[in-house]
């Protein structure tokens, strides 16, 4: 069963649904956020996504070790959560102009809420879907609150065990909402492609009885495009106008041309999946005419023997199969034929 977000059906029978995540790459500027929305529409993605929180709704202002990232963190080492989220958050008053512009550009616009007040804000903006971020997958009350709106729920699974994913999916379903997409995800920033474990996508689909997508934090588009072959129906990637100075997530985000390539190549990957069958397709019929077969390659007379000088395997098709030469070699022609005649059984 496909999931519908806005005017888009999402499932195996439809091209991958591409979500461009703004996150903190607006770099504290509403104008830049709006420019990202325009870029996403121009690149051909289907949706643009925000994150809806305030620093105080996601953490507290504390310098204690529990509230500070490891010094070894590749991007944000040593920063406090409060400091990071103060920089990265999207002010609530920006949501309406961002949603309005996205709609003008025929883009789906939705968000990841991080508490009940965020859901309230987004409901007021008629958000068509909700995403549960990886770190929030264990917040089952939040999952139920988002699912109870009746909107499609996208659940990201970075760091989560099978049991935790199952609990979140069941929490959403407990509200009567069956519009659920589960995202395979590696919650590293940036993520190593070798840790993506895309072969888990078919397994996840069977275990959770839901459509599976990919939330991808690896550089480039290779991992994302490969996921389509494993059954991903949705791809989410962070985006930026330019990685150089592009915002807190810019180092693992796609630039405009890369996003355009992702849209194009993921569609090609989906189209190439075809059907579980082997054999010639309709467009190969002309090619079948030009397979090799046995042809008379020199004028012959009745009674002449078939030899390698007057019969060879050449293109096109029409004559006996090349492997039949050993059966006809040395046998006599029943009549004379000109060079370029397909060798058939009635000629020998």
| Proportion of residues in helical segments | 25-40%
Which class do the helix and strand fractions yield? alpha/beta
> What global shape is seen?
elongated
Calculate the terminal CA-CA distance, rounded to whole Å: 60 Å
- Quick one: CATH superfamily of the largest domain? Aldolase class I
Detail the poorly predicted runs.
none
Please state the average pLDDT score: 95
Question: What value does the Rg take, in angstroms?
Answer: 30 Å
By CATH, the topology of the largest domain is TIM Barrel
Question: β content, as a range?
Answer: 15-25%
* Main sheet specs: 8 strands, parallel
Number of beta-strand segments? 12
**The CATH class of the largest domain:** Alpha Beta
The domain count comes to 2
CATH architecture of the largest domain: Alpha-Beta Barrel
Q: Count of helical segments?
A: 12
Spatial order of the strands forming the largest sheet: 5-4-3-10-9-8-7-6
The ordered string of helix (H) and strand (E) elements is: EEEHEHHHEHEHEHEHEHEHHEEH
